[in-house]
Write a structure and sequence with these properties.
The protein is mainly beta. It contains one helix and ten strands. The protein has one helix at residues 9-22; strands at 42-55, 58-73, 82-96, 102-108, 110-114, 119-130, 135-144, 149-151, 156-159, 164-167.
Amino acid sequence: MIVYFWPMRPILLALMVCGLTACIEDDPTAQRLMQPPEEDVQAVESFGVTYLISDSARVSVKVKAGHVIEAVEGDEENGPIEEIQYLDEGVEVYFLDSYGRPNSTILCDSGIFRRNSGLIRLVGNVKLSNSRNERMETEELFWNRTTDSMYTDKRVRIQTPDKVIIGREGL
């Protein structure tokens, strides 16, 4: 006996879609990092942006983002004004050597750069790699440009050519 499912195909497809979407939970950390600025905040929106960050007249970092909102938040009466860049739709950070070649790379989904404090928060599928074939993966990474340090309190997976290290509480 041969059973044909062709006439039932639309019904099966609808049931599969309903079943799959019913299993998805709302995770606040999975929501998009990009929050549109409030109406009274000055903002500029750009697509396909590349930033070059220099140190001592030498480009040391190159940052690419698919979508950027640059905002100025706060007012002088209620506190300091802060320049913030919301990066989304894929973020690529390249650390360059003295010849301008990338020697380390960070790829992630989105990020926030607080220009006044020099703090950059990278979120979602954060993957670091370097020229020594070492890799690190986490869900969130903070990069403090002022102290030149990186840290996270999320789970971390570090892979070197000869071993794998898994940290449950960040680094």
